[in-house]
Design brief:
A: about 170 residues, B: alpha/beta, Glutaredoxin, five-stranded mixed sheet, two-stranded antiparallel ribbon, 5 helices, about 40% helix
């Protein structure tokens, strides 16, 4: 019990460590003095892919090229670019690849809407299957013995059928 | 019953083709360049002190077909590529300019002194401004620039004699026409 408690007590410390590790790719000397501009730089950096490591943002990456890209983002922001202008600057050089969130273009329409299309078409097919009643099984022909047995049950002694209409 | 089979077969064909491409040397991690057939970006890079030819500016690329090679003394693949560049320069096949990327000038110079210096002009790019302007993702990368200063090709990774023979030499011959 004591052990579990001490582990639980250590959890917040561990979480704090994790948070501080992930927050420190941006080094102190890179930051802009103006907090609003720095916030914008962080936002732009989070949308840009590190082209070295490829599955990280430049905000998270420790690669040297990512650092230089972060510095460039801040330079452009200081020079008066809007966020979109900074992103456009990078896209012009690295292509859409540099954006972590793919833009909606003719090429990416399938990417954006494909899953919904599959869902709608799949749902339609399932609905149709569910709504259509299962086809009733066709009555099987009686085997010779069964037919004979049935005849024996339904026939009266005088050879006329019990349930037949008069 | 037939339709799902056709869909699965089509998917298998797509995946199979991609796998064959990858094993055939088409690296999925390679980032295609969007700068093909656009003018070489504006830059004016400082020279390495003491070299015979100066730094590299966009204007220097006009007038003849040339290669622009992005390298660094820290880059292992550049070491692999270097003998090929030295040989190309020895045979005067094409002028090769260098961009010393993220390097100290003394480190670049020492590296060239040790391994040979095949470059016409070399510009320093200590803060990646040129590398980012060129959409560089790693070293070495080599751009083929035509006589009008327009980027016609980008080769990612080391230039080998094979790459020269099959890709660069035919393209350069065609651009010179």
């Amino acid at each position: 019990m004591k052990r579990i408690l001490s582990i639980l007590a250590a959890l917040p410390i561990f979480a704090a460590l994790l948070i501080s590790i992930s927050a420190f790719a941006v080094e102190p000397d890179e930051r802009l003095n103006d907090p609003a501009a720095e916030a914008r730089a962080r936002e732009v950096s989070k949308a840009l892919r590190c082209v070295v490591c490829q599955n990280e943002t430049i905000d998270d990456s420790n690669a040297e090229l990512a650092r230089d890209m972060r510095l460039l983002v801040r330079e452009r922001i200081k020079a008066g670019d809007t966020n979109d202008q900074v992103l456009a600057y990078m896209v012009q050089r690295y292509g859409d690849f540099v954006l972590l969130k793919p833009r909606m273009t003719g090429e990416t329409l399938v990417l954006w809407f494909g899953p919904f299309l599959v869902l709608i078409v799949g749902g339609f097919i399932v609905m149709r299957r569910l709504r259509k009643p299962a086809p009733a099984a066709a009555p099987e022909a009686l085997s010779m013995e069964d037919a004979k047995a049935l005849q024996e049950i339904t026939n009266t002694d005088d050879g006329t059928q019990k349930d037949s209409a008069p | 019953m037939v339709i799902p089979l056709i869909i699965v077969a089509a998917l298998l064909a797509v995946f199979g083709k991609r796998l064959a491409d990858v094993s055939g040397g088409d690296d999925p991690r390679v980032v295609p360049t969007v700068l093909l057939n656009t003018p070489f970006p504006a830059m004016d890079l400082a020279a390495l002190p003491g070299r015979e030819f100066g730094g590299l500016s966009t204007a220097d690329l006009k007038g003849q077909v040339s290669l622009v090679n992005v390298w660094g003394s820290w880059c292992v693949a550049c070491m692999v590529e270097h003998p090929t560049l030295v040989a190309l320069n020895r045979e005067k096949l094409v002028p090769i300019h260098g961009i010393a990327w993220r390097d100290k000038p003394e480190a670049s110079l020492a590296w060239l002194a040790k391994n040979g210096d095949p470059y016409a002009r070399v510009g320093q790019d200590p803060r990646s401004s040129a590398a980012i302007a060129l959409g560089v993702t790693g070293a070495p990368e080599t751009f083929v620039v035509d006589a009008e200063g327009v980027i016609r090709y980008k080769h990612i990774g080391p230039i080998t004699p094979e790459v020269w023979k099959t890709k660069l030499a035919p393209l350069i011959a065609q651009l010179r026409k």
